């Protein structure tokens, strides 16, 4: 069995989970180093409020355009290669904003970093799920993604605090260097730790000619996209889950663009206070996620109830924060929103993965990422078109609060339907395209 033998004590399974958690934590640490300082740095570089909104919207739409092509790349060439590219390109983009103060370089670096993001979107999850299910077919995905969310939160908390401290003490550009270094470390760790145990076959991978790789990608792209279209046309539950995830991403993304400027006023400009406002909710989430994972293991039907309760709580917290005029009230309510909104996602991700066939998992998860990015980017373009500034939070946040509650309830309903109806697995499990590497097979690109 590829990926190491399955031992009675589950050594191989635990190793897979540890690698997944390590890389997930690094991924989020690098991105979250910039969560407090990025919008403020762009403003310092001379970009106006409206330009920043348009730029962030363009980042989301660029990621949307690249989601499916990068997912196909991961399915055809290998999950590991896709994750390495994602880390490396982000390291370059983030570093550009540290080494140059030119506004044009700031825009270019932001967009280059956005190119790297979708390469890892779905690929790391797909590698972990496929590898884990080969080592332990009874593995619980709710537990995997709950622990993955814990790793995300650990990266969010440490990255946010480290980036804020660096920005406060050393300057707003220094977190860019820290983020680039974290992504570079992620690329090195991925190269070393996810290395396949079998040699790369001739005709693909590092030794393949470029024309052969292009033919492989073209054939895989056509087949995978046809499969995605058939799956979304025949599996209504899968389509509903993807659309609900996109809506929840939108309604979490809109406040995520404005909170830095809004709370900068309420906290007196302290980056450390901003970091606390952003990451305390994720920190409080960590023990709750373990409770959620244990509850769902005992009762799979609890997944939907948890999503509903978390979405309603998130909507109430965000609505209250939007209407609060005092930072002493608004900041704790926003912390509650971050904490509750994150509890919706592990169950939703598990439901999606249970319905996606192994062979095209990265492509299908990237299609989900496309919906998420497209929804958020278009939402920000609407904000810009309506002339809504970064500090105009009341209308945007109350709308996001209502949307979070509504689509959280819809997501829970589709999760119930998912438990009761079998997935349409044949829709995307088409015959393999020839010429794949052994590395791609090891990464889960061609699961029999």
UniProtKB/TrEMBL annotation:
Ranges for region Disordered: 426-448
Decide whether keyword Isomerase is in the record: no
Transmembrane regions listed in the UniProt entry: 20-40, 52-74, 105-129, 177-194, 237-254, 266-285, 306-325, 331-352, 364-384, 396-416
The entry's keywords: Membrane, Transmembrane, Transmembrane helix
Q: Name one Pfam family in it.
A: MFS_1
Alphabetized InterPro entries for the sequence: MFS, MFS_DHA3_Transporter, MFS_trans_sf
Q: SUPFAM superfamilies in the record, alphabetically?
A: MFS general substrate transporter
The organism's place on the tree of life at top rank? Bacteria
- Respond yes or no to whether keyword Zinc is given for this record: no
Q: What is the protein name given in its UniProt record?
A: MFS family permease
What is the species listed in this Swiss-Prot or TrEMBL entry?
Streptomyces syringium
